[in-house]
Amino acid sequence: MTMFQLAPNDTRLEGGVFDDRRRLNRAYLLSLTDEALLQNFFLEAGIGDQNWHLQPSRDSAVSRGLERHWGWETPGALLRGHFLGHWLSAAAREVAVTGDRLLRARIDSVLDGLERCQQENGGGWIWAIPPAFLRRLAEGRAVWAPQYAMHKTLMGLVDVHRDLGDDRALQLARNASIPILEWVRGIDDDAFQTILEVETGGMLEVWADLLAATGDDIYRELLKRYYHRSLFEGLLAGRDMLTNMHANTTIPEVLGAARAYEVTGDERWRGIVEEYWTQAVTRRGTFCTGGQTSGEIWTPPFEFASRRGEKTQEHCVVYNMIRLADALMRWTGDLSYADYIERNLYNGILAQQNPRTGMVAYFLPLEGRARKNWGTATEDFWCCHGTLVQAHTRHSGLVFFLGEDGELTIAQHIGARTRVATAAGDVAVRVTVLGNAGYVGPDSNAGEAGDAHRPSATRVRVEVTSAEGVPLRVRVRVPDWVVGEPALAGDEHVERAAGALVIAHPGVRTSVDIAFPFALRAVPIPDEPTTVAFVEGPVVLAGLVDREVSLNGDPSSAASLLTPDNERQWTEWLRGYRSVGQPSTIRFRPVHEIVDEPYSLYFPINAAGN
Questions:
Q1: Nearest to 117 by CA among 57, 184, 46
Q2: Which ranges carry the Non-reducing end beta-L-arabinofuranosidase-like GH127 catalytic domain (predicted)?
């Protein structure tokens, strides 16, 4: 069953942790000045203030230019300019979803700057890096991934056009395509295949996007030239193309294959995507968080114990694999991809954003006594800094999907609302997350206020409203972590289906409360079954420890090792645990709530009697 994403302005978040993090992200987007975002573009075009970065002896931060951007955005850095494209993409989606007028004005101002740079550069070249970088690349000389940096600007422009209908952004991207096309045409195919071995970012995807937007055959030509034979043919032949290879070099290329399939309908592109997923996830496995990679490379299949370190789970990989799962879910209607997305949202996207500052952790360390290393607002600008700002503008787009049969799917249990246009009339749908509230099953004596202890179920309320006689079928995902059967209140219109509940809304108003029961689980690392992580629902728990720690007990029984701790404040159930039966007590909290505390996710378990 094919499903389609709703338009960005059709869905809004309604409170909760994902909306909180979105708001934090919006504040950060607005905090960055146009001058700083454009600094390297102006420098390359030879316009604007050229001296601000040459004043290290000034007394104040402002006079030294420290309000400008440093790290990977330092003038002279080889990937300078990459972040602006991420900013444009994130700002465009935020505006499309919320109608944010201030960010819309900021986008226009940044486009003014880029347009000026393109004009000063002769009408084509728009980037913050020089054309000489492409020449070095073609000559096989050392240069760090110029196409990666160039793609980000093109991506940002394309996203501004797609999300906001901005024709100027599209024209800037089309103009910028010409020097790339001329460069590509000057290189024979075999030599260009060698060039494709150097990280290209999402160039393939942006050519597919521009083909869809314009129908211009030059983008069909570029799609053909950017077909990465060694990777794609290896995947189609079933060879392991990933073990010990840099992960985020290839995921964007495969996202390009996914977009090329959607635009052209060529099944070969789809085969590449499906085989990549098989190799990256099905035949490789993941850490307890749902993420992968160590030191930015793919681990060997199901061999994780020796790869836990300070540089596991790169944020870019988490974000881009969520995008890949989203594409496969839309093509197939298979909600197991939504389970994958959910794990990575909580234990990657949320876990790698500082809930106080909004900054990113490049990696999520999985070694014992780990600490998250947070980026800063203006002094780092890692690649993951860019995917962070995009990720937190896209939560609402992961909730609702419309099937080709007219059925609406609720893929993520995130508080949100939408309106669906049907042949009979509009239907409003709202999802409210009621949290770890009272279990509403037939054997429950619980009311939210009457529970003596923290309930073992999460509850969502689905409300469907329309005029009389305007129906809608709403499919609600039943997560893979649910224990037993979901419990329903107001279930007269609910049907049970594989992996889902289907609400058959007949018209007027339908309201259903669904409780999804969970149990604390001990999830072993695949190649070391007595080393486990503790997981509640989709959420991985972090033990607050400042050293490597093992526990004593039964590795298959999480309930015998941990018990709820600090479970209630005012009207809210908390998700903390503490160890029991151990020489000293360890407290556990969701990993996405950890800020600066040292922690461990995996614990060796010494079986009783050993």
A1: 46
A2: 12-396
How far is it, in rounded angstroms, from Cα 149 to Cα 459?
A: 43
- How many domains does the chain fold into? 3
Question: 137 with 195: CB under 8 angstroms?
Answer: yes
Sign of the alpha-carbon dihedral angle for 456, 597, 14, 326:
negative
Q: What is the number of residues in the chain?
A: 610
Output the CA torsion sign for 524, 526, 529, 531.
Answer: negative
What token pair was written down for 249?
């070099």
Task: Identify the domain containing residue 496 by its residue range.
Answer: 401-517
Q: The domain spanning residue 409 has which CATH number?
A: 2.60.40
Q: How far apart are CA 166 and CA 105, in angstroms?
A: 12
Please name the residue ranges forming H helices in 297-448.
315-332, 336-344, 383-391
Give CA–CA dist 130/138, Å, rounded: 14
- Considering the domain boundaries, does residue 187 fall inside one? no
Kindly indicate the confidence band of residue 58, based on its pLDDT and cuts at 50, 70 and 90.
low
Q: What is the pLDDT of residues 314-344, one digit of tens each?
A: 999 999 999 999 999 999 999 999 999 999 9
Q: Are 185 and 241 in contact (CB under 8 A)?
A: no
Q: Which amino acid is at 246?
A: H
Q: Residue 598: helix, strand or coil by DSSP?
A: coil
Largest Cα span, the chain: 77
Q: Which residue has the tokens 């129906």?
A: 471
CA-CA distances (angstroms) from residue 39 to 32, 67, 175, 379, 459? Answer: 12, 11, 21, 14, 48
What the block records as the tokens of 74 is: 């330092």
CB-based burial label for 583 (10 Å; 0-12, 13-18, 19+):
exposed
Looking at 50-64, 154-168, 462-476, which range is the least confident one? Answer: 50-64
Same domain flag for 18 and 105? yes
pLDDT tens per residue, range 18-47: 999 999 999 999 999 999 999 999 999 999
CA 411/CA 3 separation, integer angstroms? 11
Do residues 483 and 571 both lie within one domain?
A: no
Tell me how far the alpha carbon of residue 526 is from its chain's centroid: 24
pLDDT at 440 over 50: no
What is the predicted pLDDT for the residue at 572?
A: 84
Q: What is the pLDDT of residues 507-535, one digit of tens each?
A: 999 999 999 999 999 999 999 999 999 99
* Single pTM value for the model: 0.96
CB 383 within 8 A of CB 82: yes
All residues at 6 or more sequence positions from 101 whose CB lies less than 8 Å from its CB, including other chains: none
**Residues 212, 213, 218, 222, CA torsion sign:** negative
50 in the same domain as 136 = yes
Q: Residue 608 pLDDT > 70, yes or no? A: no
Q: Which residues contact 193 (CB under 8 A, 6 or more apart)?
A: 228, 229, 230
